[in-house]
Structures are given as C-alpha cells and as structure tokens.
Amino acid sequence: MQALVTHPPPVTATPLFDTSALKHEHNIPSQFIWPHDEQPCAETPPELEVPPIDLEGFLSGDKAAMSRATTLVNEACKKHGFFLVVNHAIDSKLIAKAHEAMDHFFCKPYSQKQSALRKPGHHCGYASSFVGRFTSKLPWKETLSFRYSADDEDSNMVENYILDLMGTEFQEFGRVYQEYCTAMSNLSLGIMELLGMSLGVGRSYFREFFEGNDSIMRLNYYPPCQKPDLTLGTGPHCDPTSLTILHQDHVGGLEVFVDQKWYSIPPNPDAFVVNIGDTFMALSNGIYRSCLHRAVVNSQTPRKSLAFFLCPKGDKVISPPIELFNGIRSQRVYPDFTWTLLLEFTQKHYRADMKTLDTFTKWLENRSDEQLHGSKQYVKAIKAGKEKKRHDALPLDSIRSDQKDAKLKYLGFSWSYKI
Ligand SMILES: C=C1C[C@]23C[C@@]1(O)CC[C@H]2[C@]1(C)CCC[C@@](C)(C(=O)O)[C@H]1[C@@H]3C(=O)O
Ligand SMILES: O=C(O)CCC(=O)C(=O)O
Ligand SMILES: [Fe+2]
Questions:
Q1: Along the 419 residues of the chain, how does pLDDT read in single tens digits?
Q2: How far is Cα 352 from Cα 373, in angstroms, rounded to an integer?
Q3: Which residues line ligand 1 (CB under 6 A)?
Q4: Ligand 2 mean position, distance from CA 1 (Å)
Q5: Which of 217, 243, 254 to mutate to test the pocket of ligand 2 (most atoms within 8 A of CB)?
Q6: Which residue minimizes the CA distance to atom 21 of ligand 1?
Q7: Do 243 and 207 contact (CB within 8 A), yes or no?
Q8: Which long-range contacts (CB under 8 A, 24 or more apart) does 354-360 make?
Q9: Is 297 in contact with 304 (CB distance < 8 Å)?
Q10: Which end of the chain is less packed: N or C, by CB atoms within 10 Å?
Q11: End-to-end alpha-carbon separation of the chain, Å?
C-alpha cells in the first residue's frame, strides 16, 4: 500500500521538468519511467463497448427514451462506471473555443505558465509533471485546474481567477471557460436526474444534492513523448470526485480497466465521456462503480482533454439515500464524509490511485479516533486489541449546526446526537 504522506514532500531542488522541452531529448528522465507492470500495453487495447446515452431523449420525457437511457446507464455504472452522452445540446462552437483556448495557454513559454503554478497542497493552478509533488512515476503531462462554483454570487469566479492569474491577455480564455463550466454544470445536473432515476431514488434527489456544486475544471495537455511505451500521461486511478464529464480531442489515449483488461475509449467529438467517481460511488452505497482508468501518450501528436469534475459543496455530508441501504444492500459500504476532507486527503496526504476511497476510509477511522479521543496511545491500544472502541459522537464542531438529528453511520456501528 502506498505510504501515507503525513505532509507534502519538501520542495527540493527537483530538476525542472518542462515536458514540452524534454521531448527533444533521446531518452526520458528515470522519474517518468513507470514500473513494467504499469506501462502501456504493447498494442492499443480493443475498444470498450460504451453505450451512447441520448440525453435529449431522456430529458424530453419520452417514456421509451427514458426507459432505454436508465437501463443502459444502470448496466454501465454497475459494471464499470463509464458511459457516453450524446444529443447533449452543448454548442459545438463552445467546445471548439475551449480547445483553442487551451492551445493558447499551453503553447506559452514555461516561464509564463510558471506564474500560474499550483501551490503545494492546493488543487488549482498550473502543474507540469507535478514537479516537486511526486518524485517517481511522474505523469507526462501539463495541467491547468481551477474552481467553478454554481452559486449565483460566484457567477464570474472562473473569469476573475484566470484574469488574476494570467492577466488581460487571457481575458477571452477566462470568458470561454466561464461559459464552458456553466454548460458542464447544467449538463451534469441533467445527468444527475438520469442517475437518480436509474437508482430508483427519483429525478430530483441527486439533482438537488449537486445544485450548488463547487466543482473543478481541469485541462490536460499531453506533449508528444519519445518513449511513449515507458511512461503514462495520467497514471491508473479512480477519480475521487463525484462525476467526470470529459471531452477528449481527436488523438485518443483514454483507457479503462474492465474485467481485468485494459480497453481504449475512442475519440468521438460529438460525445462526452462520463464516469462515476469515488464520491458518487459512496453516494450510491457502492452500487455504482468508480472505475480504474488512465491516459497513454504517443510520440507524434500532443493530446488534450477537458475534464469537468462535478463536486458537491465542500461541507455537504456524503451519505447515501436510505433507499440504497435498507433493502437489497442493507449494510453501509462507506462512512459519512465531506468532499472537503477527501479533497484534502488527495492533495496533502495521498496520491489518488485505484484504492483512494478505501485508504481514505481507514485514514478517517484512525483520524476520528485520534480526534475523538485525542490520544495516539488509545489508537495504538485499539490496534493492539487492548482497548474496546468507544463509539462516541463525533465532536460537535466537526458537523454543521444545520444538520439537526444527523445520523452518522460508520463502518457498521452508528451513533446519533442532537445538536
Ligand atoms: C481531485 C482531483 C485530484 C486529481 C485531479 C482531481 O480533480 C480529479 C482526478 C485526480 C487525479 C487526476 C487522479 C490521478 C492522480 C493525480 C495526481 C493526477 O495524475 O493528476 C490526480 C489529480 C491531483 O492533482 O491530485
Ligand atoms: O486525459 C484523459 O483522457 C483522462 C484524464 C483523467 O482521467 C483525469 O484527469 O482524471
Ligand atoms: Fe480520471
């Protein structure tokens, strides 16, 4: 198991990895070479049969279209968590402008991009191969990530952030992505209606849960690599977020691990690739799956993908609707948590991979024991079996005051309290 980093690694004198410059060298630095069992397949893997979901049909209220959409989504999400959305009503000119704007940013000199550098422990800003964040298995990519809030009072958050970060030269960039993120947020709410129907909890349940979403937009830029068989653009992982709406360009490189084999998801400019993330897997009480996926690179052409990561407001309690754990699946599969805590875990303590949610659950349990009982000795005694676990309520300050009569179920035992 990956060691938990108890604090961000010190930013040592890590060599400057400008992947766009590295491509001119014959070899690649050893930090980019992945273990043999994680390297790309020798041949491009077969294409995954991913059902295209006609979203317009579902939202139109046509009974046959709704039934077909909910059945296809239910089957796909139970099996691997990936599906395509077509007839999504997102303007193709907006998508094209978003891709053009991305080129405008990533083609800038490294020194100019560096002014937007992501700060240690934070998820927004520019990153190139995670210089200073990780010391091995570096991804062959550059990224730019920023927050999007669906709340009205934050209606220009993206535009203002980009303007502050990059100046007036990027004003149009900021406007394009303000519009793009708003379109993605609206699209994700329609998909949440579909997911709610497909899980039998009704159209509005998850739509309302994500109305005021506080999401993440991430631009992935994968420069050509002279040794594409030794490295990865994005390593194998499950998205810790709730739902990912991804638009990949014409190049191809997204791969999904299903039934113990890698499959490729071919580019389709008219479709968004949608996948369940860890947080929604917890909201579905494990019924829908957050699927392992990765991105490979090539030696000829840069590849780009636009990933909108839907996230709930940071302090909403991630807890499945009772319908999902009092019948077919009576046990709770994951503890209650907040997205703020899971995001902090991925930014400060653990590199997201295929085991993030399970590792986070264990971290939460240890953390809450320490928090609950304040003593590391107590936790050690529990582990040594010398002390019976006491199931006190979580400290009141850790739960929002408006969550009256909140019920926290945690790993099979539960406690409740009045605030
Ligand atoms: C919450 C997040 C962390 C990562 C970005 C994201 O918004 C969703 C996906 C996560 C990530 C891409 C999973 C693979 C490892 C990672 C470090 C990366 O390759 O970028 C992850 C992102 C991160 O910056 O932690
Ligand atoms: O670039 C891709 O196709 C996948 C990227 C990805 O999985 C991510 O950013 O989480
Ligand atoms: Fe991902």
A1: 455 554 444 444 444 566 666 767 888 999 999 999 999 998 999 999 888 999 999 999 999 999 999 999 999 999 999 999 999 999 999 999 999 999 999 999 988 998 888 888 889 999 987 767 888 999 999 999 999 999 977 789 999 999 999 999 999 999 999 999 999 999 999 999 999 999 999 999 999 999 999 999 999 999 999 999 999 999 999 999 999 999 999 999 999 999 999 999 999 999 999 999 999 999 999 999 999 999 999 999 999 999 999 999 999 999 999 999 877 677 999 999 999 999 999 999 999 999 999 999 999 988 766 665 655 665 566 666 655 554 333 333 333 333 333 334 443 333 222 22
A2: 28
A3: 123, 139, 216, 218, 234-235, 237, 239-241, 309, 343, 346, 351-352
A4: 23
A5: 254
A6: 352
A7: no
A8: 354/236, 354/237, 354/238, 354/292, 355/1, 355/2, 356/237, 356/238, 356/240, 356/278, 357/238, 357/240, 357/278, 357/281, 357/282, 357/290, 359/1, 359/2, 359/4, 360/240
A9: no
A10: N
A11: 38
* Two tokens, residue 351: 């590199």
